[in-house]
Amino acid sequence: MRLATGRAELARWLEQALSPEAAREVPRARTTVRRRGAVVELRLEASDAGAMRAALNTYLGWVALSLATVGAAEGPRRAPGPDAAGEALISRTR
């Protein structure tokens, strides 16, 4: 999955937050994290559909928590918009 954050700095923070988690083992799944500019890409591989569902739920939870943390840290200084810290566009890759 690709996370288009709208800001390279936010993508870097997200990559740093998710990389240690990717190094840990999620049961029956493997994940890699890469960043290009303002986009973070998560590649998840799982041994079965249940493991994929669990891995996706886990990573989406970590992404949401990371973005909420950045949003809270930035506070009201940032104007709301499509590149606000609490928002990221998630797209499917093949």
Name its key features.
94 residues; alpha+beta; TATA-Binding Protein; four-stranded antiparallel beta sheet; 4 strands; 23% strand
**Inertia-based shape:** elongated
Radius of gyration: 13 Å
- Our count of domains comes out at 1
> How helix-rich are the residues, as a percent range?
40-55%
CATH C-level category: Alpha Beta
Identify the strand order in the major beta sheet. 2-3-1-4
Residue stretches low in confidence (pLDDT < 50, at least 5 long) are: 79-86
Give the CATH topology. TATA-Binding Protein
Mean pLDDT across the residues is 83
**What is the succession of H and E elements?**
EHEEHE
Report how far apart the termini are. Answer: 9 Å
Strand content: 15-25%
Q: Given the helix and strand composition, which structural class is it?
A: alpha+beta
The oligomerization state is single chain
Q: Please provide the count of β strands.
A: 4
Query: Could you give a short account of the major beta sheet?
Result: 4 strands, antiparallel
Model description:
- The protein has 94 residues and is an alpha+beta fold.
- The chain has two helices and four strands, in the order E-H-E-E-H-E.
- It has one domain: TATA-Binding Protein.
- A four-stranded antiparallel beta sheet has the order 2-3-1-4.
